[in-house]
Amino acid sequence: MKKLLVTGASGFLGWHLCQLAKQQWDVYSTYFSHEIEIPGVTMLKIDLRDFQALKHLFQQIQPSATIHTAAQSSPNYCQTHAEESYAINVTTSLNIAGLCADFGIPFIFTSTDLVFDGLNAPYRETDPVSPVNAYGEQKVQAEEGILARYPLATICRMPLMFGMATPTATSFIQPFMQTLKDGKELALFTDEFRTPASGTTAAKGLLMVLEKQVQGMIHLGGKERLSRYDFGRLLVEVFQLPATGLKSCRQQDVKMAAPRPADVSLDSSKAFHLGYQPLSVREELEMLRG
Predict the structure, then answer these.
(1) Nearest-CA neighbor of 90 among 148, 143, 130?
(2) Measuring CA to CA, which residue among 202, 181, 87 is closest to residue 173?
(3) What does the pLDDT profile of the chain (290 residues) look like in tens digits?
(4) Peptide bond into 122 cis (omega under 30)
């Protein structure tokens, strides 16, 4: 079996990716602050910001391909800790791209729908980027730097992702569900739109991109454009949660460290034509419910 290096196994997407990839690949995956074991995957503790350690890792494993999911992905945290988050989101990403270029192997970088300003959705791969917060700005810098350093690299722009909690990570639905179960108020935006996909669907998309040897930019959004509030209503319905606490609000009603774009829905037609097949959000949630 060929060796696949996946960074960020302790993250939400990284964990889901490892679960699927190990069926086809000999998977090596990294973690740093959150120790994790995944049966059938070789786990490696490393500070990816340490270039010498990173270089040694590549020499040691000799991977056939790399998918880089490790990141500081909280927009609010990136906004208030710009230098610290830049080190992992930009510098580390460029270093990994350079090593993949040196080894002549496929490199997939997971970017975000937040590279867009939210004014001209749905967004295609060719649309100009214009991030409104530090996290989106860092991902743009990483995208541009990676393609300059390794033009054969792949940039996968990921949507808002959801799914069941992993041993070391949650998605946004866990706190939503808990709040409603506790009988508390959950106010969700009616004016913020995304194209959500489950962690499993997103991981399938990444492996499809690797298998089809896609290069350059590709979007891996879900098939539906939903507001946060619409998503909350589906969650209540499918999981039969108390609906009394679910309230609607607007972005301007909530003060956050990081500005948020209104509508970063992705047009993922390119991926759909290649065989990427997200289910509807309702179907995804019903599968999670079991």
Answers:
(1) 143
(2) 181
(3) 999 999 999 999 999 999 999 999 999 999 999 999 999 999 999 999 999 999 999 999 999 999 999 999 999 999 999 999 999 999 999 999 999 999 999 999 999 999 999 999 999 999 999 999 999 999 999 999 999 999 999 999 999 999 999 999 999 999 999 999 999 999 999 999 999 999 999 999 999 999 999 999 999 999 999 999 999 999 999 999 999 999 999 999 999 999 999 999 999 999 999 999 999 999 999 999 98
(4) yes
pTM: 0.97
From residue 254, alpha-carbon distances to 149, 189, 250 in Å are: 39, 9, 7
Q: Which fold has domain 169-195+225-265+280-289?
A: UDP-galactose 4-epimerase; domain 1 (3.90.25)
Tokens, residue 5: 């290096």
Q: Which two tokens stand for residue 133?
A: 């917060």
Question: Which residue type, as a one-letter code, is found at position 256?
Answer: M
Q: What angle do CA 70, 90, 25 make, to 5 degrees?
A: 35
Q: Which fold has domain 3-161+197-219?
A: Rossmann fold (3.40.50)
DSSP characters for 20-62?
Answer: HHTTTSEEEEEESSS----TTSEEEE--TT-HHHHHHHHHHH-
Contact 108, 66 (CB under 8 A): yes
Please indicate whether the domains covering 3-161+197-219 and 169-195+225-265+280-289 agree at the CATH topology level.
no
- Cα four-point dihedral sign 95, 63, 151, 130: negative
